[in-house]
């Protein structure tokens, strides 16, 4: 058994070495090259719904819808990564924020909600983000004094409270839910976009039957948010989060106002969760409490951990796997909890750092090699 | 010595944990610019005393003042900003961050970039001339500012984030040089050797620009050669104008570097004075070596 584990570890390490080698080579490329490659990749992502690539298309579901779901999940993962990966706070009730964002848009924007006002989408979404941020602060204020497991339990409770509230409250129409969640815009595709496969001029940009508009919007938001989080990550703020994750007491003694920064992490994570909820349910046009179960919340955490907590590309990969695999392999979709559970266990044994090695991984490997040498 | 100002005053501090009295009416002062040794046998209350000064433990009674300001009840990160920094007896670095980043976290204590500021870096700082001088003096962006002036770049074109980020980096590199581990700046803290980790802790503490640096057994586990170079480092730090409060077990080290010594035993101060005085003090000898049976 040990031999098997050892050989698996070795295989894994050689793969990691290959990946980090790739990363170094990437970093050494001239700036212009890197920008061009990145640009090409971004174009590729935008063009994905119109490309005919064998094998990756989903057999039973509209491929663009799956891409949209992937983008929304990436947005979720980017937000959850701030909380879990950077600040090191285990949040099991993240779906609560997702629900708050979605319901805010539905209640303020739908003609069928119990609230009479009916704002357009562009007004609803900033309000939704603000409301989720505030809810994050309200949840965080009393609970962020707790640590580790206790925080996990409280957040788990929060997620359930939101779901049960949505199920029973009048303002959410209870289990009947709210129909007519507003779409981002009522506009139609212009003539000059007609060439793109799947787009017909004159048809609405945002409709349930043709999701390309939603996908492009989601993708754009993903890029903006990833860029924003990256900026935070590489600043005084990100360093403070990492320090809190590593050793909260030491961070405090080194002058980091830990409570304030934990609250910020919670608020920013919540805002991104709210945004993704708002986005997803604008496409669904219908919302009720069914979609906010605990398992989804836990699967998101699993996606972040499997992808590589703390590494934006890693968590994005984890989220894409979580959204894409069950749609691509429909026959296994019912087993996804099992599969992700097993994956999580395997990962914690072999690769606690997640699929994509973070930039720090290399040093660690050298470390392990040294330890190995001493052991022999 | 007596004309020096009191930097830190520990005034009749008592700390009880349940039934245990860890500190019992201890008072001493640390004077500006000196190296004060805090010694005593195991369990004498040295680390508790440290914890009280840095706000980790709240005294049951008594007062602690730093530059005349009461510290008891202050938040820990605010105490750091007032100018007290410390290292830990059992090393507590940020293991998954690089050595450089560890020191930068310390430097961040003096900076002001907010979440919003870090997000929208295009917002320019409107730095007035006197503020510029203040930033200059405080965070060591001196070289940057000079360069800006020389080349005629507009300092107003830099965001606070950029300015402070560079300052933090510059300061971190300088401090790593001071403690002698700049060649390992890019490595994870946890992959550094034991001695390097201890030095990194000192660099991180210095980055917060303390008036008072508290070192909790910095030489624990060092061999004589390492201890010697540590002594040199502590003196160097003192010479840059930082007052040092030092907890140490090793008597030779303490005698060699400190200006004055305070001796604790069972939570009480039993002696205070210059190394020579303390060495001759019968109570100290008794505490360290035990009382001879015929004398008892």
TrEMBL record, chain A:
Pfam families: BPD_transp_2. InterPro entries: ABC_transp_permease (IPR001851), LivM-like (IPR043428). It is found in: Cell membrane. The chain crosses the membrane at residues 31-51, 63-86, 92-109, 121-141, 205-229, 263-282, 294-325, 337-356. It is a multi-pass membrane protein. Keywords: Cell membrane, Membrane, Transmembrane, Transmembrane helix. PANTHER family: HIGH-AFFINITY BRANCHED-CHAIN AMINO ACID TRANSPORT PROTEIN BRAE, HIGH-AFFINITY BRANCHED-CHAIN AMINO ACID TRANSPORT SYSTEM PERMEASE. This is High-affinity branched-chain amino acid ABC transporter (LivM). It comes from Paractinoplanes deccanensis. The lineage of its organism: Bacteria, Bacillati, Actinomycetota, Actinomycetes, Micromonosporales.
UniProtKB/TrEMBL annotation, chain B:
Keywords: ATP-binding, Nucleotide-binding, Transport. It comes from the Bacteria. CDD domains: ABC_Mj1267_LivG_branched. InterPro entries: AAA+_ATPase (IPR003593), ABC_AA/LPS_Transport (IPR051120), ABC_transporter-like_ATP-bd (IPR003439), ABC_transporter-like_CS (IPR017871), BCA_ABC_TP_C (IPR032823), P-loop_NTPase (IPR027417). The keyword Cell division does not apply. One of its GO terms (molecular function) is ATP binding. Residues 8-291 form the ABC transporter domain. PANTHER family: AMINO ACID ABC TRANSPORTER ATP-BINDING PROTEIN (PTHR45772:SF7), CONSERVED COMPONENT OF ABC TRANSPORTER FOR NATURAL AMINO ACIDS-RELATED (PTHR45772). This is ABC transporter ATP-binding protein. The lineage of its organism: Bacteria, Bacillati, Actinomycetota, Actinomycetes, Micromonosporales.
């Amino acid at each position: 058994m040990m031999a098997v584990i050892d050989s698996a570890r070795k295989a894994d390490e050689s793969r990691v070495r290959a990946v980090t080698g790739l990363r170094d080579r990437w970093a050494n490329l001239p700036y212009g090259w890197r920008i061009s490659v990145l640009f090409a990749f971004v174009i590729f992502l935008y063009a994905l719904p119109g490309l005919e690539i064998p094998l990756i298309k989903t057999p039973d579901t509209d491929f663009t819808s799956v891409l949209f779901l992937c983008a929304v999940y990436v947005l979720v993962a980017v937000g959850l990564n701030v909380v879990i990966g950077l600040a090191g706070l285990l949040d099991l009730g993240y779906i609560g924020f997702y629900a708050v964002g979605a319901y805010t848009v539905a209640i303020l924007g739908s003609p069928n909600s119990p609230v009479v006002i009916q704002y357009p989408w562009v007004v609803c979404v900033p309000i939704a983000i603000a409301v989720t941020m505030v809810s994050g602060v309200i949840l965080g204020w009393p609970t962020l004094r707790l640590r580790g497991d206790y925080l996990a339990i409280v957040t788990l409770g929060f997620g359930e409270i939101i779901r049960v509230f949505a199920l029973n409250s009048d303002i959410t129409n209870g289990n009947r839910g709210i129909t007519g969640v507003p779409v981002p815009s009522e506009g139609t595709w212009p003539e000059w976009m007609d060439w793109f496969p799947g787009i017909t001029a004159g048809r609405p940009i945002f409709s349930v039957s043709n999701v390309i508009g939603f996908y492009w919007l989601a993708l754009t938001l993903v890029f903006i948010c990833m860029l924003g989080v990256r900026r935070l990550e590489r600043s005084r703020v990100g360093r403070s989060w990492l320090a809190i994750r590593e050793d909260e007491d030491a961070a405090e003694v080194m002058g980091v106002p830990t409570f304030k920064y934990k609250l910020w992490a919670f608020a920013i994570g919540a805002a991104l969760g709210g945004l993704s909820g708002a986005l997803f349910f604008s496409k669904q046009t219908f919302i009720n409490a069914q979609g906010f179960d605990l398992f989804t919340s836990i699967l998101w955490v699993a996606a972040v951990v499997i992808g590589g907590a703390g590494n934006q590309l890693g968590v994005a990969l984890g989220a894409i796997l979580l959204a894409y695999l069950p749609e691509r392999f429909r026959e296994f979709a019912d087993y996804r909890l099992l599969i992700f559970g097993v994956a999580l266990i395997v990962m914690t044994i072999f690769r606690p750092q997640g699929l994509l090695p973070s930039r720090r991984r290399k040093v660690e490997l050298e470390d392990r090699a040294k330890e190995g040498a001493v052991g022999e | 010595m007596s004309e020096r100002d009191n930097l830190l005053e520990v005034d009749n501090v008592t700390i009880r944990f349940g039934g245990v009295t860890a500190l019992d009416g201890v008072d001493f002062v640390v004077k500006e610019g000196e190296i004060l040794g805090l010694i005593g046998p195991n369990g004498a209350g040295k680390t508790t005393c440290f914890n009280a000064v840095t706000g980790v433990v709240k005294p049951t009674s008594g007062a602690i003042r730093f530059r005349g300001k009461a510290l008891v009840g202050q938040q820990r990160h605010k105490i750091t900003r007032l100018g007290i920094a410390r290292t830990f007896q059992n090393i507590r670095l940020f293991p998954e961050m690089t050595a450089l980043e560890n020191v930068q976290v310390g430097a961040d204590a003096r900076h002001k970039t907010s979440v919003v500021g870090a997000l929208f870096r295009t917002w320019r700082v409107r730095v007035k001339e006197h503020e510029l001088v203040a930033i200059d003096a405080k965070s060591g962006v001196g070289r940057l500012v000079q360069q800006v002036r020389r080349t005629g770049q507009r300092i107003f074109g830099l965001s606070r984030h950029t300015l402070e980020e560079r300052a933090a980096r510059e300061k971190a590199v300088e401090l790593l040089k001071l403690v002698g581990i700049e060649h390992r700046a890019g490595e994870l803290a946890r992959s550094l050797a034991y001695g390097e980790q201890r030095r990194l802790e000192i660099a991180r503490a210095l980055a917060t620009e303390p008036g008072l640096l508290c070192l909790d057994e910095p030489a624990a586990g060092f061999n004589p050669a390492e201890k010697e170079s540590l002594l040199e480092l502590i003196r160097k730090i003192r010479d840059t104008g930082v007052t040092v409060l030092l907890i140490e077990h090793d008597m030779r080290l303490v005698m060699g570097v400190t200006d004055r010594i305070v001796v604790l035993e069972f939570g009480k101060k039993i002696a205070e004075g210059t190394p020579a005085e303390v060495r001759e003090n019968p109570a100290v000898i008794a505490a360290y070596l035990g009382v001879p049976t015929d004398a008892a």
